[in-house]
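FIELD: query
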Amino acid sequence: MGRALLLALLVLLVAPLGTVQATVGGSGHPPVAGATRPDVAILTLNGTSRASFTTASLDLGTTLAVQHDAAAATLDRYAIDERFNRTASTEARKTLLFESATAVEIRIAALRDQERATRSAYASRDIDTATFLRQLAVMHARVSDLRTALDDVQNHADRIPQFSMRGRVRRLDATLYGMEGPLRQRALDAMTGDAKSARLYVAVSNGGLVLSTIEDGRYRREAYRADHRDTETVSGMSITEAADLAERLYPVAYNTSSSIRTGIVGLSGGLYRLDIERRQGTITAYLDGATRQVFFEVQERRLDLLDARPSVTATANGTRLTVNRTFPGGPLEVAVTDETGTPVRRTLVVEGHRFGTDAAGQAWTLAPATPFEVTAVGPAGNVTVDVRPTEPTPVAAEG
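FIELD: result
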């Protein structure tokens, strides 16, 4: 439930149609004048190579690919289980499990290479956004298969007296962090028919990716920075050091009175998981002890508790249109009234995406990565404002 306290920025005054008034808007209410507060930090990319939108919906190809991978993983598990049960020698059993763990390690490395290659293909426009998201969803499902394989190795190892593979299994499991996520799961659920379709913002850079969506009154975002992750070096910090670092990385989330609970947990491989619960939402972030940076982050924010943000307003053809600005891929609030201030229902258009306001004259969508237009379609004519995305507050790396 990590909610947005959005960055104070200059107000943009643009309106190709009608008289323009600049105001600062607050979420869920008519825009009111006032200063915005510093925003909660988010994990940002090292420059964006490509950003766009796509809709995850039922996809037979993805469903078949996931089912094929799951069936193959199940057959592998049955084969190892049978070999283990038929092997009487303790040493032979140990060898089998070492080989099994190595096989999983090889598959993890191959999956990491595939993820990197897929990001590169999308950034270079060799594949479209829908294809990229489908491939992310399939790789997400493979992570689950790999975790199950590691669990099987551990369960078999526990059956051998005075023998443990917990250290290796946990280290391998730790290398999978960031290669799966709740928005990838959301996309997968839509593609396999387990959930309704979902519109997502997708952005990549040379070192990572971002996914975001708005659903059920909440803004959800996950970000992964492969260039912040050192899988070759295991260099941890004490829990106290990690907690101090986390507080420096997320100062607003830690210091606001709305924080309900914070905690940090040490994981295998020199990693740490940070959890922040606030009235406005949650933050889950993974720190790499070697790089001392956040490499994977999931944030969720309640739309009705977002703070005031810079806005742009235009009035024309009997319609007043106000857009509360946000960062690329962030939650964009639009409010429409008539000239008397009465909320009205209107069709809105943002980069070809059409959606409507509710009875309160409000609507939410995701902000594009570059300057864009928002148009309200009215019976007497349209009104349009030009909008620049704000700069996000980045999670600051140490040193």
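FIELD: remark
Residues 19-39+308-387 form a domain with the Immunoglobulin-like fold (CATH 2.60.40).
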